[in-house]
Each structure stands twice: as structure tokens, then as C-alpha cells.
From TrEMBL, chain A:
One Pfam family, short name: PALP
Positions where N6-(pyridoxal phosphate)lysine occurs in the chain: 91
NCBIfam families assigned: trpB
Role played: The beta subunit is responsible for the synthesis of L-tryptophan from indole and L-serine.
SUPFAM superfamilies: Tryptophan synthase beta subunit-like PLP-dependent enzymes
Annotated ranges, domain Tryptophan synthase beta chain-like PALP: 57-381
Name the UniProt record assigns to this protein: Tryptophan synthase beta chain
GO terms of molecular function: tryptophan synthase activity
Cellular-component GO terms for this entry: cytoplasm
Enzyme Commission no: 4.2.1.20
TrEMBL record, chain B:
Domain of life: Bacteria
PANTHER family documented for this protein: TRYPTOPHAN SYNTHASE ALPHA CHAIN, CHLOROPLASTIC, TRYPTOPHAN SYNTHASE, ALPHA CHAIN
Gene: trpA
Name of the featured protein: Tryptophan synthase alpha chain
PROSITE patterns for this protein: TRP_SYNTHASE_ALPHA (PS00167)
Pfam family, one: Trp_syntA
Gene Ontology cellular-component terms listed: cytosol
Gene3D superfamilies: Aldolase class I
Subunit description: Tetramer of two alpha and two beta chains.
Family: Belongs to the TrpA family.
UniProt entry keywords in alphabetical sequence: Amino-acid biosynthesis, Aromatic amino acid biosynthesis, Lyase, Tryptophan biosynthesis
The protein's Enzyme Commission number: 4.2.1.20
Catalytic residue list: 46 (proton acceptor), 57 (proton acceptor)
Organism: Fictibacillus marinisediminis
Amino acid sequence: MKTVYPDSRGRYGEFGGKFVPETIMFALDDLEKGFNEAIENAEFMEELQHELADYSGRPTPLTYAGKLSAKIGGASIYLKREDLNHTGAHKINNAIGQALLARRMGKKKIIAETGAGQHGVAAATAASRYGLECKVYMGEEDIRRQALNVFRMKLLGAEVIPVSSGTKTLKDATNEAIRQWVASVEDTFYMIGSAVGPHPYPKIVKEFQSVIGYEAKAQFAQIKEGGLPEKVVACVGGGSNAIGIFSAFVDEDVSLVGVEAGGKGLLTGLHAATMANGTAGVIHGSLTYLLQSQEGQIQEPYSISAGLDYPGVGPEHAFLKSTERVKYENITDEEALEALNLLCREEGILCALESAHAVAQALKEARSMRAEENIIVCLSGRGDKDVHTLFEQQKEEVSHGQ
Amino acid sequence: MGSRMKEFQSKKSSLFVPFITAGDPSPVVTVDLALALQNEGADALELGIPYSDPLADGPVIQRASKRALENDMSLEKAMKLVANMRAAGLTIPVIIFTYYNLLLQLGEQKFFELASQNEIDGLLVPDMPFEESKDLQKSCSAHDLSFISLAAPTTSQGRLKEIGEAAQGFLYCISSLGVTGARTSFANGLDRFLDEARSASSVPVLIGFGLSSREQMQQFEGKCDGFIMGSTIVSKIEELGPDLLREDKKGEALQTFSDFLSKLVPLNVYS
């Protein structure tokens, strides 16, 4: 059966919806109307395809990781190379889509939030290309951790606004971006970076990220004469690369695995495993699973990867978990680092720490599969931004005599 | 709707509804502040429940939430605090202002039980728009609670009509775009918005967000039925906080708070 959601209220089963101040309800209605018109408009879709191809560099390859597969044993591993996109991650697919939509809707200013900085860089890039003014909200702690991306955003002409409330990370940057959107909603487009937030954002982000899945499916079919992989694996913070790649396979007989950040281990409390340890609640305008106290105060997540460090998850993922269509697992910092190093040495690919979680899970899955079976892993981004973190990590290991 | 809210609706045209955060600077002092507000002429009290991620609030109320959370305040504890206010002589309606997640985690059934046990009169959920709140609105009616709806200058005429018709207790009209916090100017077309809100609704129309002085209230003379004021009052509580927490200074600090209120409350604003 084909899946038809969200419904007219923006619900994915019990999840999703619009839980926002009344002030921005009209903007969400406008956005929904503008988006529905745009994706039905041949000219808009043609321009989007053109920009994805000629500017961002799509299609990205589907690379067979032959040495890695042989080393692990079991299934063959294929990598969907979103790391080869312009700006270095899948985030640009959505940023180009939303920037073109903003321009089509007559908005001249965009605001965005960012954690690790990849969405901020993508938003600043798209804003620069399409002549939009761009403000990026970023937690002070993330500004410190991701100084290089902050510099890139500034080079691209964006204004980076430090957020000092709460724990000064992505959660607080998102709160602040929404607050600022409420204040400037009449002329400003909010470019959200993941498949989260009030309806219609999760639907919009999925649409613009679905290119990952459709390309991967077609590329795999070409290699394997029309066949499908047995499994597709992707990391999940908010979940936009995962929802993008899953979209082409969700109605097929393909096993889907989402991978969250297990941080230092679920028992330590230091993790971002929303699906494993979260409960249903409302965050950033949407009903979904989130990490919270019994009373409903949102709790801080932890991950070595700033991009997975989010206390909620996109509402469609919450739905896919509740229907058991997607299996959600978690990978610790240590396992992710190990997978990152292995991929680097075997295939010469330095992936983002986010993507390393998906790689680590794929390695686990591959071991218990047969040699003729195949796994596609979404390699959501490249690891340049994480070199500093990796350097610090290695230094620590050296100082511990490892 | 309960009798306290009915009395509120029939009182006068310049209704005054102040907002304070439960647990700021301490649960005990919250009770004292509520009584001071009543003594200075508040017609109802909006009691804010602290939340870690208050999307609709500006920095002043965010800071108050943080302080209250450090005092271990929760929705359940705040509702129980209202019983203490009643025991100490609070007779005006109390409206609980809470973000939806806190209500969701407490559970509706428990919320209505506590509301009845602790003599609570209304509920306001700033991140729950009209479409999402229909069921909750019905449950509120069934439990004699007023569900306070919000309308904004950006609300379309069609929606405003629907919201106005369903409004219980009073209709909360947002004066300006953005989050809570004192400001010097208000949204364009505000007069027309208030006119439309009054003709769409049979309950009093109150204006809030950004009001910080009696002079500002005078600007709206004849255009609404009353005022909601939060950040200016919470800011004063923040300033007086250290003294309010000291037994030897509390009396004096409460007097300062009352003097401050007496200059704000629009008792004779239309005379």
C-alpha cells in the first residue's frame, strides 16, 4: 500500500501538526500554498533540477565500497555520496529548494538556524546565489565549536547571530530563529534545515531531499539490472538525509535503518537517541519523540557530532518508528570514530561524523548478511568540518598512550 | 465557565490582567505577589508555568522561567500553589499560561482534576493555535474552565471570526508581531484589528504583548476592553528578586512592588 501522509492537518498518524504562536499561522498557510503551487509548476521544478545539476553537482555518485565490504565480510556496501555536493553535505539540496521557493514567494530575506554549521553554510550559499539577505542563528557554544563554518558563512555574506539563551546550541538557535521569524514574518522566509518543525516544513524538506533516494534507487537499479538493495541505512538527527533517501524505498520491500547518536552510551544519559529514549511531546512546533523530563522540560542531548546533537526528531520518523516500518538503532561516539577511520583507510573517504554513525551501523548489519546482498549507506556529508574535533580526539588518545 | 470568570466579564471596561511566573523568585513569594496584584486592582491573574523552551516569550520572561525552573517549579506544583493563593485571600480568576508540552505530559485528566481542586478558572496555551485546540476547548467548557484564545494582527478575517465566535472568558489580542516584551510601537492596522475582534466576539477583548505603561494603555481608549501586562511586571520582580527573598527586606520590597503597580494599573484610564 502506498503511504499518503501528511494529512490535511499536517499529521503523520498522531505526529506532526502545527504547534506555534497564532502570529505565524498565516505564514505557514502561505508557505503551504506557495510550496504546493511551486512543485506543480514545471518552470520552478525545471529551474530546481537545473540548479541541482549545474550548481550543486548532482547527481552525486553511488560508490561501491569494495575494499571496505571485503574487509567486513557479508553484504556489499554502496555509498550515496552526498559528501560530493557543493558545500559538502546534503543540506544544500534543501537550501537551494527553499531559497528558490522564497524568491518565488517574493521574500527578500531569509533566516536560518544551524548547529554544526552545514545548514548555515548551505543557506548562506543559496542566499548569495539567489540574491537574498541571510541571517543565521547559531548557539554561542556551536560558534565556538564550528569556527571555520562561521567564517565561511560570513565570507558568503551572511550575518551570523550568536544565541546565548539556554545551552547555547542548536535547540536554542532554533527557538531564537522561530522567535525572530514571528517578529518579521511579513517579509521574511524561515529556511528550516531539517525535516522538523511545524507543518508544512517536514513535507517541504522531504520533497527537496527526496532527490537522494530517487537517484540512489535509479543508480542501484542500473548497476544491478533493475534490482533493489536489501537495506538502506542513514543517520538521524532531525532526520532530513534519512527521510530523503528512505522516500524512494519506503513503499518497496527494502529494509530501512535510521541511526541515532548513542553518544557515550544510553546508560550514561549522554546521548541524542531520541527514538530509543525519548517520549512523545511537542518541540519546535511539531508533535514528535523528544528527550524530556517527566514534567515535559526539554533535555539536552549529547553527541560528538554537532549535527546529530538535537533533542527531537522529524515527525515522519516518529511515525515510521511507531508503525515499525523503519528500525532505529544507535551508535556510540567510539563506534562512529572507528567507522570513520576504517572508511578513511579502506576507501580514501573522510566522511562527516554524522555519516560515520550510518557507516558504523551498516558495518554491523553487513556482517550478518549474505555476500549477494547489498546495503546503501547515505554518506550525508564530508568530514572537513570535523577535522578539528578529530585532531583533538587523536591528541587525547596520544596523551593517553594509545 | 465558573462564577469568578463571569464576574470578571461583567466588571468594567478597563480590565487589567497581569502575568507573573510561578516560582519566580520563589513559590512562597509568588503567592505574595499575586495578592499584591489583586490589592492594586488586578481583575484576573495570568500565572505563567516555566518552560525550558518558551517560543513565544522574550528574554525577560525566559529569564523568569529559568529562575523558576531552578526552584523546581512544574505545572502540577504551580496549580497547587493556586490553592495557597486562595487560602491567603485571592479571589480573582486565575488563568494558567502553559506551553502545550507541559500539559501533554501532565495529562488532560490530571490537569482538570488539579484545576478543580485548586480553583483555577482558565487555560491559555500560547503554542496551540485554534485548529489544534478545538478538543481541548470543549473539554475546558465541560470542566467550567475558560480556554483563552489568541488572535494576532496577522490572523485572517475568516479565522478571526471563527476564533472570536468560539472565544471563552476573553479574547487575547496580540498587539504586535514578535515575542513578549515591552516595546514602543505597535503593529500597523491595530485599530482595525481590534474593531474586527470586538465585532467577531461576544466576550471582552483584551490587548497584550508589549504594553509597558499607562500612557500606552490610554492609546487604546475605547478600542478594547482591557489589558494584559507581563514583561514589565516580571522585570520589576527580577529587579526586586534578591530583596523579596530576604525575610528582613521582603515587606519593603513588596511595598515597592505595590507602588510600582499603582502607577500602572489602568483604574481610571478612561475617566
